[in-house]
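> forwarded from #structure-qc
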């Protein structure tokens, strides 16, 4: 397979996510979400992430969510006490949905359409906490470069909080007859490529711009962050799945794989 350049992969991912937005709007969960965000105490943040955020401290803090998608998690941060919230995503189509949700919410979140690798300088040194959740790191062609950009938008002493899927899962294919058969190297360098629309459940049999999913080992993630001047202060792995329903089959096993992790690093 011919590897795309970093720029081409990022641009193609943007196109794929923009195309994906209409499929998410068609989901029956969308009207329910439009209603739910009207409540001041709306939150879709699960107990695992809430516990970590509370340890870091939310009350009175200025937050940014990187890869905020439709902004439902960004809006949830107000219920935990955030003072201000900015969501960043390179998909203008998803940010349109985020703004639609924000217009119904009693809270005032700001949404910025930008590729994380080209952030406006007004965002530099602005945030106490940067949040990254499920399914963001793997869209980044170079994890070290990504962390350098995220570090720039934190204030000195600011915290980066990550709640992500575990990279061990990239070795398995949950859709095969033997979902525990090792299918792909943990150290895989070439991205997984999908040319069907990105949806969280099932498949849509249509063509879409190619989306490029890069595998980053825990070692790459730790080293990338340390090289970007981020000091890791928390790392915990969990036996529950936080990704597509297909991956629930890896839960509740005698020989349990780690399925997701939380991670905190501080900017010096
Ligand atoms: C799986 S979604 C995150 C979903 C989020 N955890 C949630 O539950 O709402 C990943 C998001 O990352 C965004 N993204 C991917 N590459 C990006 C980039 N280079 N800069 C900014 N956003 C990016 C995509 O547009 C997409 O909205």
């Amino acid at each position: 397979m011919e590897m795309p350049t970093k720029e081409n992969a990022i641009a193609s991912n943007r196109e794929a996510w923009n195309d994906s937005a209409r499929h998410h709007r068609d989901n029956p969960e969308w009207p329910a979400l439009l209603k739910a965000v009207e409540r001041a105490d709306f939150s879709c943040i699960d107990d695992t992430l809430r516990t970590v955020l509370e340890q870091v401290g939310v009350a009175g803090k200025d937050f940014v969510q990187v890869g905020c998608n439709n902004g439902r998690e960004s809006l949830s941060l107000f219920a935990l006490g955030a003072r201000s919230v900015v969501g960043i995503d390179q998909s203008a189509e998803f940010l349109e949905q985020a703004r639609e949700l924000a217009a119904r919410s009693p809270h005032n979140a700001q949404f910025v359409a930008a590729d994380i690798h080209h952030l406006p300088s007004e965002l530099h040194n602005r945030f106490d906490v940067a949040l990254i959740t499920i399914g963001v790191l793997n869209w980044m062609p170079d994890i070290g470069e990504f962390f350098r950009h995220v570090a720039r938008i934190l204030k000195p002493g600011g915290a980066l909080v990550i709640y992500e899927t575990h990279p061990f899962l990239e070795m398995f294919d949950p859709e095969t007859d033997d979902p525990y058969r090792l299918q792909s190297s943990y150290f895989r360098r070439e991205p997984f490529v999908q040319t069907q629309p990105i949806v969280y459940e099932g498949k849509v049999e249509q063509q879409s711009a190619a989306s490029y999913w890069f595998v980053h080992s825990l070692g790459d993630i730790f080293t990338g962050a340390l090289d970007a001047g981020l000091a890791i202060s928390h790392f915990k792995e969990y036996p529950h799945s936080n990704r597509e329903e297909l991956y629930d089959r890896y839960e509740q096993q005698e020989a349990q794989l780690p399925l997701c992790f939380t991670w905190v690093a501080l900017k010096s």
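QC bot note: The domain at 6-267 is CATH 3.40.50.150 (Rossmann fold). The chain has a mean pLDDT of 96.
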